[in-house]
Design brief:
Layout lengths: L2 H20 L4 E17 L2 E19 L2 E7 L4 H17 L31 H16 L5 E20 L4 E19 L2 E11 L8 H14 L9 E7 L5 H11 L1 H5 L20 E3 L22 E5 L2 E2 L6 H7 L13 E3 L6 H8 L2 E8 L9 E12 L2 E14 H6 L1 E4 L9 E2 L3 E9 L2
């Protein structure tokens, strides 16, 4: 996305805010995005789909005092913008007043927009992307004779531009890119079939894992699952592998969201300042991480983002608030309109192999299924697959099991976080070793 496009979208937002004032709004905010992308998917050595995307959209919210109305459009023409503002104003005039409604405080607006190095376009066409995807899938299919089918490989690249503004006088924007590659294959042995996948993603195309490596990792993970068994119901230590462990943090972050808290629908209600993890645990957010997959100089309300600790020495330091939920709770926004950005939990330093040795005998979880996490009570029960570990060594793959516990207890029972945190994504964590959970099998 060019500087010219950035300037055009900033002018669109500025014009929209002026129009909102002309139509009687006491305050207003607007966000506009534009993106261009390319998706190429191959399967069994043939190009299956090529998709080009080029779209944009605009959302506007107006306030008449503390009455609110919102409207959206994909048409950025001056006439369409006027009609969209008018629609939002009509809605606002008929809604009831909400004491928590309104813009984020003017003093919290980002005054300095740092360059976070998020924009690295990939100069690649459909043919080039197809060649990479074919190389990826070929490496997977050639890895082992038991690889007998493929769900395909894909290459994705996207350039985006986001601009936000409000009647505090704030208008800001920034361009981003995101690129990825993935592969999924199937393997068979006797009557058993198994499937697994792997992927790589980055802001920078040169930092993507090599195509052949992605394919081989997808195949290695698939073949490793052959010979899976069922196990008897037991209680034992559990390791959530590093690519699965982020889901445990996301359950925590969901419980810390202001909307869950003011609705009293969170198992983390009234836990601010309380010890929720062992005292060695530190969890932080770094929205200004260069090239970070969730980095942003300001949130979706224009509030300056900042590095902060969510958990320090095991104690909950902060909720996850936008301005509306903050007002409902009698607090101040944490700059998280749009969510958390680049979260990280500190490692205790053990390698993956050392975690297995420390566990001794127990379950290694490598896949989770279903949505068995209750955000109100913290009760946790999810279908799973993985490996049974004996004497610190992987013994055999297991499937058709359920892991169960309570998230609050699981967080307290966290024994270690591995140093194997090289998994792509915006949640930075190694594997988690949890003292004890119920594993339901036969």
């Amino acid at each position: 996305m060019s500087n010219q496009e950035m300037g055009h979208l900033q002018q669109v937002v500025a014009d929209l805010l002026d129009e909102a004032k002309k139509q009687g709004a006491s305050s207003a905010e607007a966000g506009v995005h534009a993106q261009q992308g390319l998706d190429v998917n191959v399967r069994l050595g043939e190009i299956e789909t090529i998709e080009h995307t080029n779209d944009h959209g605009l959302g506007v919210t107006v306030y008449f005092g503390q009455r609110k109305g919102s409207a959206n459009t994909t048409d950025l023409s001056p006439e369409a913008i006027r009609e969209t503002v008018a629609a939002a104003c009509r809605i606002a005039r008929y809604t009831s007043e909400d004491p928590a409604a309104g813009l984020a405080e003017a003093g919290l607006m980002a005054s300095d927009i740092p360059d976070l190095d998020l924009n690295h376009p990939w100069q690649i066409d459909a043919q080039g992307a197809a060649e990479i995807a074919l190389e990826c899938e070929s490496a997977a299919r050639d890895f082992d004779a038991r690889i007998n089918n493929s769900e395909g490989a894909g290459v994705h690249t996207q350039n985006s531009l986001f601009v936000y503004g409000n009647t505090h006088g704030f208008v800001g924007g920034y361009p981003t890119t995101r690129h990825s590659m993935s592969c999924a294959v199937l393997a068979g042995e006797g009557e058993q079939m198994q499937r697994d996948f792997w992927y790589t993603t980055s802001r920078v195309p040169e930092k993507l894992q090599a195509a052949a490596e992605v394919g081989r990792e997808a195949a290695r993970r698939t073949v490793a699952r052959l010979g899976s068994r069922k196990i008897k119901t037991t209680e034992c230590p559990v390791i959530f592998r590093a690519d699965i462990a982020p889901s445990l943090l996301r359950s925590l972050f969901g419980a810390l969201r202001g909307a869950s808290l003011y609705r009293k629908a969170s198992f983390m209600l009234d836990q601010l300042g309380e010890s929720i993890f062992p005292d060695w645990v530190i969890i932080d957010e770094d929205p200004h991480l260069p090239q970070g997959l969730s980095s942003a100089p300001f949130d979706n309300e224009g509030v300056a983002t900042q590095h902060r600790k969510i958990v320090d020495t095991g104690v909950l330091q902060s909720y996850v608030l936008d301005s509306y939920s903050a007002r409902k709770l009698g607090m101040q926004t944490t700059g998280n309109a749009g969510g958390l950005r680049n979260t990280r939990i500190d490692s205790t330093g053990e390698s993956f192999e050392e975690l297995l040795q420390r566990m001794g005998t127990g379950l290694l979880v490598t896949e989770l299924m279903g949505q068995g996490s209750n955000p109100v009570t913290g009760d946790y029960s999810r279908g799973a697959a993985g490996f049974w570990v004996e004497n610190g060594e992987i013994a055999y793959p297991v499937e058709e099991i359920t892991v169960a516990g309570n998230l609050r207890q699981m967080y307290q029972d966290l024994l270690a976080v591995g140093a194997d945190n090289d998994i792509p994504g915006s949640v930075d964590t190694g594997s988690w070793l949890i003292r004890k959970m119920t594993v339901a099998g036969n």
